[in-house]
Amino acid sequence: MKAIGEAVSAAGGGGEQLLNISRAIGQIQTKGKLSAEEVNQLAENGIGAWKLLSEAMGKSQAELMKMAADGKLLANDVLPALTAQMEKTF
Q1: Read out DSSP for the chain?
Q2: Which residues of 48-87 are buried (b: 16+ CB within 10 A; e: fewer)?
Q3: What is the pLDDT of residue 31?
Q4: Quick check: 79 pLDDT over 80?
Q5: Domain ranges of the chain
Q6: How many Å separate Cα 48 from the centre of its chain?
Q7: pTM of the model
């Protein structure tokens, strides 16, 4: 949560953005994988998840998008990488 709060603050957001980002992350956990829908929700709230994941996982954004479309970006892999990169970036 600390990383999310710092990212929201850096993006100039507030409570609503924090709630929306937390909801998107919860959806990723519930589904067990990352989809473009949640990435779009994060982007709408100031979190460039494709860019962050690209940096964290050493893959291009296009590769990650393809992996997500194929259901290969599992929550157990993506969320720790995303959170760690958010901590580095923000």
Answers
A1: -HHHHHHHHHTT--HHHHHHHHHHHHHHHHHTB--HHHHHHHHHTT--HHHHHHHHHT--HHHHHHHHHTT--BHHHHHHHHHHHHHHH-
A2: bbbebbbebbeeeeeebbebbeeeebebeebeebbbebbe
A3: 96
A4: yes
A5: 2-89
A6: 7
A7: 0.90
